[in-house]
Design brief:
This protein has 697 residues and is an alpha+beta fold. It has three domains: 230 residues, no CATH class; 273 residues, no CATH class; 100 residues, no CATH class. Helices cover 33% and strands 25% of the residues. A hairpin with a 5-residue loop joins strand 8 and strand 9. Helix 1 runs antiparallel to helix 6, helix 1 crosses helix 11 and helix 9 crosses helix 11.
Length: 697
C-alpha cells in the first residue's frame, strides 16, 4: 500500500502524456472520419413518458415561413408573420382542419446569423416547390397549395367566464379558441426547427382533410454548396396508423396536422424510420433533382403533446469528417508541456528512488505525494498561462463541449478525440498553473490532490457523453443543438466568449451540465480559499520545509549563493544553492502548490534544512549520490553520458559535491560550488541515471 501513491502518480503522468501526445498526432493526422451510434429517448414499447427539454415542439417563435419579399422568398419568424398576416379567420366552433397547429410562445428571437442560413433554405424550397408537393401527393397526402394555413390557441379570444358543462356546472377552466390564419404571401411549407436556432428542421405542408405531410428536406436544403437535394417522407397510411398504435390510443381523428384522441388529447407526430423494422415505418427518400426514389435507414419517433409528454426515440448513425490544423500555437504549447512533463518525470523518479532506498533502510515510513505540485517552482509552469493564451479560445470551446452530444456545427469538435482530450489536459494544467501563481501572490499553500480527479472527471464525462444524455439527470433529452454557428464563433475572441454569455451557449444552453463543470473547477479553488497565509522561516537562520509543509518558492535559473543553515555552534554556514526569492519580497515565499500530507508529517517538527521532496520541487537532483545538479543541467548531462559523448562536450555546469552525514541521516553539501565542463573526469565516472533526492541538513 505504501507504493500506491507512487504508482498512482506515474499512471497519472503517463495518462497526461498520452493525452498531449494525441494532440501531436494532428501534425500528420490532419483528417479523420468518425461514425457514432446515436440513441436517445426510450423504447417505444414502454409507452408515453415525460420527455426532458423543449426540443421538437413547434413553437411560433422557433418556427419560420418563407415569405415573398419582392421577387424572392426570405425567412420570417412565424410569430412575426402571424402578427402581420392580412387574413384572420377565427373558428369559434373548432371545425377547421386544413391548417397546421403550432404552440404559441413569445420571447425568443432567431439569431441573425442563423437567419442567413435559413435564407438559402427558402431559396431551395422555392426552386423545388412543385416537386415537393408532388412527392407529398405520391405519399398519399392531399396538401394545400394556395397558401400557408396555421392554427394556434389564442387566449386573447377566450371567454371571460369559465367553461360550463351541459348541466350548467363549470369545470373551472378558461376557454380558448383556435385561431386559423392564412399567410398568402408565403410558401405553403412550414419550417419547424428541432430546437431554437437549429439549422436542421422538419417541414410540414398542411392538408385539406386534417392530415399534414411531414417530411425532411436534406443536403442542399440545409447545407450551402451541396448540389444534391433530397426529401424524406413516410406514406400517410403508415404514419397515421403507427401514431395511434405507439400512443396506445386508437380511434382518434386528424385535425390541423395533429392526432386528436377520443379523450381530446392532441399529439403532433413525426414518425419516420429508414430501417425496415417490425413497425413497418420505413420512409422513402426522393432525389428532388433526378426524381429518383430510394430507401434509407434511420429511425425517428416523436409523438408528443404540447407539454412534451409522449413517445420519443431516435436512433441512427452520425458520420462526420474532421480536419485539424497543427499551427505554431499548438507547437509552442506542446513543446512547453513536453518540457514540464519531462521535469515532472525526473522529479518523480528521483523522489521514488530515494524514498525506496530509505524505506529499505527503515528511515522512511511515508511516501509523499509526487503530483503536479513538483512543478510549483518551475519557470515553465509560471509562464504556462502566457504560452497557452493564444489557445484560450479553443480551451473555452473544449470546456463548453465536455459531456455534450451536439447536432450541428459543434458535433465535429466533440467527436475529434485528438482535439478534445488534449484540450481537456491543457485546460486542467492551465487552471492549476493559475492557482499556483495566485497562491504565491497571496502567500498561501494549497494541495495538488485534486489535479488527478479533475482531469479524470472531465475525460470520463466526455467519454460517456452518450450515457449522460440518456441518463435523464439533466434538463434535455440527450440531443444538444449547437447554439453558436461556426461563422459567429470564428468572429469572436476569447474575451467575447467570457463576457457575452457565449460560453453557456457553446454548452447548448444546458445549465445543469454547465454548472456541474464549473462547480468542478470551483472545487479546486476551495483549498486555496480555506488555507491560512504561510509564514516565512524567519524564526530560524535557515529556510526550512518539511515534505508536507511549505518551503521557499522561486528557483533561480542557476544556483546562486548558498543556503544558510546552522552549525553546531549556532553560526550560519553555507550548505548548498540558494532558494531565496529574487524581487518577491523581503521574506521567503511559500512553495504554493504542494502535496497533501499525513497527520504524522504535519505533527513532526521541521528539520533545519530542506526535505527530499522540496529539493526536487526546487529543481535539483543528486546524481550518483555525489553531485547536486539542477534538473535542467541533468537533462543535458544524462543523454550525453548515455551516448558516450561527454568527452566531446564543452558545456559548463555548476554543481555541488554531496557527502552523507550518517549521524543526522541526511546529506551535507560542500560550501563552494564546482564549476567545470561536463567532460570533466569526475563526471565521466558517474552513473548518469542514478538520480535521487536527499534531505539536506
Amino acid at each position: 500500500m505504501r507504493l500506491l501513491p507512487i504508482v498512482y502518480h506515474w499512471v497519472l503522468w503517463l495518462f497526461f502524456t498520452l493525452l498531449i501526445f494525441g494532440q501531436a498526432l494532428g501534425a500528420v493526422w490532419t483528417r479523420a472520419a468518425y461514425t457514432d451510434n446515436l440513441v436517445f429517448g426510450q423504447n417505444s414499447a414502454l409507452g408515453p413518458f415525460q420527455v426532458l427539454g423543449s426540443n421538437d415542439v413547434p413553437f411560433t417563435d422557433r418556427s419560420y415561413v418563407c415569405s415573398r419579399r419582392s421577387r424572392v422568398y426570405r425567412p420570417v419568424q412565424l410569430a412575426k408573420a402571424l402578427d402581420a398576416s392580412p387574413l384572420v379567420v377565427v373558428d369559434t366552433a373548432g371545425g377547421a382542419v386544413n391548417g397546421y397547429r403550432v404552440v404559441k410562445r413569445a420571447g425568443f428571437e432567431i439569431d441573425a446569423t442563423v437567419m442567413k442560413g435559413y435564407t438559402s433554405t427558402c431559396h431551395a424550397i422555392a426552386a423545388t416547390l412543385d416537386a415537393i408537393l408532388d412527392r407529398c401527393t405520391e405519399l398519399g397526402y392531399n396538401v394545400t397549395r394556395d397558401g400557408l394555413r396555421v392554427v394556434y390557441d389564442d387566449k386573447a379570444h377566450a371567454s371571460d367566464s369559465p367553461t360550463s358543462n351541459s348541466d350548467g356546472s363549470g369545470d373551472g377552466r378558461t376557454a380558448t379558441r383556435s385561431v386559423l390564419k392564412i399567410v398568402r404571401d408565403a410558401l405553403p411549407v412550414l419550417v419547424l426547427p428541432f430546437s431554437d436556432n437549429s439549422r436542421y428542421s422538419r417541414y410540414a405542408i398542411p392538408g385539406w382533410d386534417g392530415s399534414a405531410c411531414m417530411v425532411r428536406l436534406n443536403d442542399g436544403y440545409e447545407t450551402d454548396g451541396l448540389a444534391a437535394m433530397t426529401m424524406r417522407g413516410l406514406n400517410r397510411s403508415v404514419r397515421e396508423l403507427r401514431t395511434a398504435e405507439l400512443l396506445g390510443r386508437p380511434g382518434g381523428v386528424w385535425r390541423n396536422g395533429w392526432y386528436e384522441d377520443r379523450a381530446g388529447g392532441r399529439w403532433f407526430s413525426d414518425v419516420m424510420s429508414t430501417e425496415p423494422t417490425l413497425m413497418g415505418i420505413a420512409m422513402r427518400e426522393f432525389d428532388m433533382i433526378a426524381v429518383v426514389t430510394v430507401i434509407r435507414k434511420r429511425t425517428n419517433l416523436a409523438i408528443m403533446n404540447d407539454t412534451l409528454f409522449g413517445v420519443f426515440a431516435v436512433s441512427g448513425e452520425a458520420r462526420a469528417e474532421i480536419s485539424s490544423v497543427y499551427d505554431l500555437e499548438v507547437v509552442l504549447a506542446n513543446v512547453s508541456l513536453g518540457v514540464l512533463l519531462v521535469r515532472w518525470a525526473v522529479a518523480m523518479a528521483a523522489l521514488a528512488s530515494s524514498r525506496l532506498a530509505r524505506t529499505e533502510r527503515g528511515c522512511e515510513r511515508e511516501f509523499p505525494s509526487a503530483g503536479i505540485g513538483l512543478l510549483a517552482c518551475a519557470r515553465g509552469f509560471h509562464w504556462l498561462p502566457i504560452v497557452l493564451l493564444p489557445r484560450l479560445k479553443t480551451h473555452l470551446a473544449v470546456f463548453a463541449s465536455i459531456g455534450c452530444v451536439f447536432e450541428g456545427s459543434q458535433a465535429a469538435l466533440t467527436q475529434a478525440w485528438y482535439l478534445m482530450y488534449p484540450g481537456i489536459a491543457e485546460l486542467v494544467l492551465l487552471v492549476f498553473s493559475l492557482l499556483n501563481l495566485l497562491a504565491k501572490l497571496l502567500r498561501r499553500r494549497m494541495s495538488d490532490a485534486l489535479f488527478g480527479p479533475t482531469l479524470l472527471f472531465y475525460c470520463a464525462a466526455h467519454h460517456f457523453r452518450m450515457e449522460l444524455g440518456r441518463s435523464g439527470w439533466f434538463e434535455y433529452d440527450g440531443r444538444i443543438i449547437s447554439a453558436v454557428p461556426s461563422a459567429q464563433f470564428e468572429s469572436m475572441s476569447a474575451l467575447d466568449i467570457l463576457t457575452s454569455g457565449a460560453l453557456l451557449r457553446l454548452n447548448g444552453n444546458v445549465k445543469s451540465l454547465f454548472f456541474l463543470k464549473v462547480g468542478m473547477l470551483a472545487l479546486n479553488v476551495l483549498p486555496l480559499l480555506l488555507s491560512r497565509p504561510a509564514r516565512g522561516a524567519v524564526a530560524t537562520a535557515a529556510t526550512t520545509a518539511t515534505a508536507a509543509n511549505s518551503g521557499p518558492t522561486t528557483l533561480p535559473s542557476q544556483p546562486s549563493p548558498p543556503l544558510a543553515t546552522k552549525t553546531t555552534d549556532g553560526q550560519p554556514q553555507s550548505v548548498g544553492p540558494s532558494t531565496r526569492t529574487r524581487g518577491w519580497g523581503d521574506t521567503e515565499r511559500t512553495l504554493a502548490l504542494h502535496a497533501a500530507s499525513s497527520a504524522q508529517e504535519r505533527a513532526a517538527p521541521a528539520s533545519p534544512g530542506l526535505s527530499a521532496y522540496d529539493m526536487v520541487r526546487l529543481g535539483y537532483v543528486v546524481v550518483d549520490s555525489a553531485w547536486l545538479m539542477a534538473i535542467s543541467d541533468w537533462l543535458l548531462f544524462a543523454p550525453l553520458a548515455a551516448c558516450g559523448l561527454l568527452h566531446f562536450a564543452s558545456l559548463h555546469v555548476m554543481v555541488f559535491a554531496v557527502r552523507q552525514d550518517a549521524v543526522r541521516s541526511c546529506c551535507v553539501v560542500d560550501e563552494k560550488p564546482v564549476v567545470c565542463q561536463m567532460s570533466d573526469p569526475r563526471f565521466t565516472r558517474c552513473r548518469p541515471w542514478a538520480i535521487s533526492s536527499q534531505p539536506f541538513g
